[in-house]
């Protein structure tokens, strides 16, 4: 399995690029959004890839982030969604937009992708809604790791530990604090206000103190869902 390619961009076509890796050219299909973000010819480029293997076909599909690759993997698991339809959805919404649409049940946003009808869009939302929190937690973890900080959490609704005494090392964030921070980050990316997101995460964490981030996200989304 070819999971990542890094080399020199040789040329672009309408829906794919050729990447030269030490003299070997790899043809990689990408979304329109990804194509627009790629550098010019002869410049360095790196893409995470998914290899589709059939009896008469080998095709590589490329993604700028692991998050986008993970959404592609889930999208193509839905009946009626092939690799090209997945690229159309990701190209229209982006990975964060896909997370938002599926988590909030917004199948009209998915339908906006070229070639995706209402029945397929509804199927995508229905089949992936329980998996969206896991991908959202992955995104929050990746963002936190890249920034090496935890998102700010409203201290009025989530209690923070007292600072350590002088001369003692600062403890690493507990698993619960990390899960809550990742859940809060995911909800903020969905557009929820910091106060309501923090309140929902605090309630979810209070109900299940040992819950991991995906479970906290699911519980918080239920709490934030419109009533009636």
UniProtKB/TrEMBL annotation:
Keywords tagged on the record: Cytoplasm, DNA damage, DNA recombination, DNA repair, DNA-binding
Biological process according to GO: DNA recombination; DNA repair
Residue intervals of the Holliday junction DNA helicase RuvA C-terminal domain: 179-225
Function: The RuvA-RuvB-RuvC complex processes Holliday junction (HJ) DNA during genetic recombination and DNA repair, while the RuvA-RuvB complex plays an important role in the rescue of blocked DNA replication forks via replication fork reversal (RFR). RuvA specifically binds to HJ cruciform DNA, conferring on it an open structure. The RuvB hexamer acts as an ATP-dependent pump, pulling dsDNA into and through the RuvAB complex. HJ branch migration allows RuvC to scan DNA until it finds its consensus sequence, where it cleaves and resolves the cruciform DNA.
Domain of life: Bacteria
Family of this protein: Belongs to the RuvA family.
Annotated spans, Domain III: 177-228
Binding partners and assembly: Homotetramer. Forms an RuvA(8)-RuvB(12)-Holliday junction (HJ) complex. HJ DNA is sandwiched between 2 RuvA tetramers; dsDNA enters through RuvA and exits via RuvB. An RuvB hexamer assembles on each DNA strand where it exits the tetramer. Each RuvB hexamer is contacted by two RuvA subunits (via domain III) on 2 adjacent RuvB subunits; this complex drives branch migration. In the full resolvosome a probable DNA-RuvA(4)-RuvB(12)-RuvC(2) complex forms which resolves the HJ.
Organism the protein comes from: Pacificitalea manganoxidans
UniProt-annotated location(s): Cytoplasm
InterPro entries per UniProt: DNA_helicase_Holl-junc_RuvA_I, NA-bd_OB-fold, RuvA, RuvA_2-like, RuvA_C, RuvA_C_sf
Keyword DNA damage in annotation: yes
GO CC aspect terms: cytoplasm; Holliday junction helicase complex; Holliday junction resolvase complex
Pfam family name, one: RuvA_C
SUPFAM superfamilies noted in UniProt: DNA helicase RuvA subunit, C-terminal domain (SSF46929), Nucleic acid-binding proteins (SSF50249), RuvA domain 2-like (SSF47781)
Gene assigned in the entry: ruvA
Main location class: cytoplasm
Cross-referenced CDD domains: UBA_RuvA_C
Domain writeup: Has three domains with a flexible linker between the domains II and III and assumes an 'L' shape. Domain III is highly mobile and contacts RuvB.
A molecular function GO annotation: four-way junction DNA binding
Name used for this protein in its record: Holliday junction branch migration complex subunit RuvA
Keyword Hydrolase included in the entry's annotation: no
């Amino acid at each position: 399995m070819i999971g990542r390619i890094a080399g020199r961009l040789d040329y672009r076509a309408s829906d794919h690029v050729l990447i030269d890796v030490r003299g070997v050219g790899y043809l990689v299909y990408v979304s329109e959004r990804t194509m627009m973000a790629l550098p010019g010819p002869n410049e360095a480029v790196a893409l995470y890839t998914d290899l589709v293997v059939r009896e008469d076909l080998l095709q590589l599909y490329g993604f700028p982030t692991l998050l986008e690759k993970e959404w592609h993997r889930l999208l193509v698991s839905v009946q009626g969604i092939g690799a090209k339809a997945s690229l159309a959805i990701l190209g229209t919404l982006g990975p964060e937009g896909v997370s938002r649409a599926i988590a909030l049940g917004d199948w009209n946003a998915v339908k906006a992708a070229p070639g995706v009808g209402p029945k397929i869009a509804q199927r995508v939302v229905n089949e992936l809604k329980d998996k969206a929190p896991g991908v959202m937690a992955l995104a929050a973890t990746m963002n936190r790791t890249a920034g090496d900080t935890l998102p700010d959490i409203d201290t009025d609704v989530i209690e923070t530990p007292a600072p350590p005494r002088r001369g003692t090392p600062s403890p690493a964030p507990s698993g619960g604090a990390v899960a809550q921070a990742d859940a809060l980050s995911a909800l903020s990316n969905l557009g929820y206000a910091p106060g309501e997101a923090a309140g929902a995460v605090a309630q979810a964490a209070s109900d299940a103190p040992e819950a991991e981030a995906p479970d906290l996200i699911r519980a918080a989304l239920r709490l934030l869902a419109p009533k009636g």
